[in-house]
Predict the structure.
Amino acid sequence: METSVVCSCCGEPHAGSEVVRLGCHPDVAVCGGCVDRMSAKVHSRPGVTPIFPVRDMTEAREFWARTGVEVELYDSGYAFVMFGGSEIAHLDLRPGLDAEHNLAACYIHVDDASAWHQRWRDAGLPVTDLVVEPWGMQEFSVRDPSGNLLRVGRNG
Ligand SMILES: [Zn+2]
């Protein structure tokens, strides 16, 4: 029997695996049900999804498949990058795109930058070294074949 933890929001006891602890206050635990209710409130914030131009859809799909996500084609010129059932990016076919001069970029916030770095490096992606930047983020980056820059990192 798992130790039960009292949710700081609803006051009900829950198994340790059913609660999350606040990053800044690990003594504060909140159960999944309360997180869901809070999430529904906070998600009046609009969702934002980057749209990456890609020069070749097959090449782009191969790149994203190596990162460990699913790519769902909408049609031959447009696709959705899916992670855990939600879309994290769109791919928009732009034949003739000059990868050298593509300035598109996005920042991917993760819990464990070093695990992502290792996974992507093992998959043969051209990742930079994992470093702690002057602004305090532990991060690395990779460019896809179309020149889109993906920066991946976390605080501290
Ligand atoms: Zn609760």
In short: The mean pLDDT is 90.
